[in-house]
Amino acid sequence: MPGFSGGGVGGGVGGPVSAPPRPFRPSRYVPVSAATFFLVGSTTLFFCFTCPWLSEYFSSVIPVYIAVIFLFTLANFCMATFMDPGVFPRAEEDEDKEDDFRAPLYKTVEIKGIQVRMKWCSTCRFYRPPRCSHCSVCDNCVEDFDHHCPWVNNCIGRRNYRYFFLFLLSLTTHIMDVFGFGLVYVLHHRQQPDTPHAAVTMAVMCVAGLFFVPVAGLTGFHIVLVARGRTTNEQVTGKFRGGVNPFTNGCLRNISYVLCSSQAPRYMGRLRSPPSVEIQPPFLRPPLSEAQLEAKVLDNGIQNDRHSARSKSSLDQMESQSADAEPPPPPKPELRYPGLPRADTEESSLLTDAPPTPSMYKYRPAFNSPGRNHTALTHPNKMIRGESLDSPSSSILQSSRQPSYRSEPSSLDGATVVGGGVGVRRGAGERGEGPGGPGGTTGGVSGGMSGYSLTGRSYTSYPSSLILSTGGSHSSSLRSAHTAHNPLATLQSEGTTDTSYKSLANQTPRNGSLSYDSLLTPSESPEFESAAHELSPQKPHAPFPFATRTGQPEVGSPSAPLQGYMSPFLSAQIAQQREGQLLQGSATFSSPHRAYLRAVSPPPASSAGPHETQILLLHNHDSSTRGPRIPSSLSSSPGARSLEPPVSPPPRGLSLGKSLTYSGEAGPQHKPRPAGGGTVLGGGGAGGGQQAPQ
Amino acid sequence: MAETHSLQDMRQQAAVAAKVFIQRDYTNGTVCQFQTKFPSELETRLDKQQFEETVRTLNNLYAEAEKLGSQSYIEGCLACLTAYTVFLCMETHYEKVLKKITKYIQEQNDKIYAPRGLLLTDPIERGLRVVSCTSVSVLAGIYSFLSSLSHVSTGTWILSQTLSSCVDRGHHLRRQKPD
């Protein structure tokens, strides 16, 4: 199973670069094992105990029919589980060279007249095609990403969506059949309820009845999705809530596309044709300077360091040029620790030792074992790179800090005031993203949801007021620091240069070792939207408290932020996923709060107190006090989409922000950034703050 | 090993193959299409018409692969009926067209691009995201020759080492024999 799902290890002969081998995590297999067990076990019992009587009492067609449906269900289940969902191979080095550290984090394309943003994936090293999203569980970009299904332990994407959909349909039918015929049996054997056959039949009926509700709900939900031509990702993140879906071709065509199109090809594991002309591996970058070579200490840090080294030199240039153009970004730590004194010397600090790096907040302290505290500010790269614990040189760190510091959420694209500094920064040709992006997205904002990121996340641009309040000139965020900076930036009230450089984004830890724990820590996945999105379907912890708390479909509640489900189908799915999460690990049970906190954002442990409390308040059903926004979110109508996903580069792994966004969004969709949540959550709150009022 | 190292240096020093990437054209959604815009880097090396013709043909081929026609429909039904075991023996419509595309690209390379020192790669290798057009230089050809030489030489070295170790072992045994 693991070998098939996601991008296992390696490809075919001379295949493209694939993800590094991921550690074996048995907890991932619990839901799929449970699903298999229940499906096969119950049906076997049904065949053994109920079908003999049915065949002789009615006709033998019945067991045959049930067997056919069961086999169809099983076949679709296996296909959904084992089929490659459409994983993109990692881009090779040569593709990246044109997109250097100044390249934008987002690229905008127009699809049928609608501006769609393609986000730079720092793991896979390319701009994600529309509808593609990076699954943090599988650590792969998946084409037409729908969601990561824990029940099949696989992503559902372009290639296997059909099988997943048919699996749902056939499973619903199968459950109904088993329940119905079991009921017939039981009713006929009312007088002898104590026979083993009757008892087993009743047990099977119970199991069937239990699973029927979530499965049927999910089936209905997906029927609606197929008819509307949307993916779960798009639906959950509310991408097309106010706008037009450019990917739909009408109900009938959407359905026929899902069911009748030819099987999409697999991208991984392909045999590469030997080039007719021998060309050396495309490492045709300009030779690195000695300093840059020295910086290549760590595996994961290779590109990071190189980028940071490059960015250092360019940044120095930029700093000198842009110092006048815009105020330097405020120190990021403030976002997280409101109590902390702001670094006054921002102007000077940019080029000096330690403006706190926004990237530090991208990643959870827990993720980077070495002291994640303010002292760690001097080693931002540590944070940036996740597992790379040692930065080779502080100078490089500082330099890399600078760009990361400047990276801003793409949400700011909408109102990016492309200052001179920003313009300067946009050295390479991709500048179009900068002015074009903001322009487009700004228009989108006003138009309402028209601008949405292509990365499976609907991010509406920030309200210009928000951006202007930050006072920053937010150029289109560059790839490098696209992660946590964004939410942080939104929280900052002073001007921030938000340029997320791709190089900084590339520094995000891509260790591929994504367990549920790592899922809980949004920091590890720089792409917030992927983390948040992928986290939401699977996240065991957050919904769990709500699951236990109420059966209500308040997916509008903070747990919902992970899912954003508001419709009954969504709630059914939530319930289903909650069930899955219930199975998923004791860790979930043991520390839902902690898990939630981790998932939300990485508040440094040292100052976790108030933030965590706030987070707990917001998301922990057990807590007596609830954030002010919770009730509103809960009271929001089921129809309301729970979240307005943060527009700009989602706060890295700040599902907290996301959850805040969700919770905040539940009611009025265009809620301005909640002040309370924003301050409390610091960086995480930045995400929350990023509610994109239309 | 020293040879490869020097080759790498040479590789870096030589201003070799620029790579031009022809990106996907998403104006019609997620249909597989590539941009027909002629990249400026190729202006001196290639005729615009030919390039556009190549890309247009590729786009047509991909459109044919993704077409919701009777063949794909029949394929889907057959797959359902056989519990998808038919995929073990039969090639899907898309794969067939992909083979056609690979052949077409090879043919274009041979006829048009290689004579101009260019090489198109099959986009399927990169997940249908880009078509890369590599400019092949003479130096690159030399590199490949030299690198192959280095491979041969290292292979020979390894072989010699192995043989010598065997010989040594043989000597050792012979020395031990008389007891």
TrEMBL record, chain A:
Residues 389-404, 464-482, 626-643 have a biased composition (Low complexity). It is an enzyme of class 2 (transferase). It is found in: Cell membrane. Residues 117-237 form the Palmitoyltransferase DHHC domain. Its EC number is 2.3.1.225. GO terms for molecular function: protein-cysteine S-palmitoyltransferase activity. The chain crosses the membrane at residues 32-55, 61-82, 163-187, 199-225. Pfam families: DHHC (PF01529). It catalyses: L-cysteinyl-[protein] + hexadecanoyl-CoA = S-hexadecanoyl-L-cysteinyl-[protein] + CoA. GO terms for cellular component: plasma membrane. Residues 311-323, 489-524 have a biased composition (Polar residues). This is Palmitoyltransferase. It comes from Scophthalmus maximus.
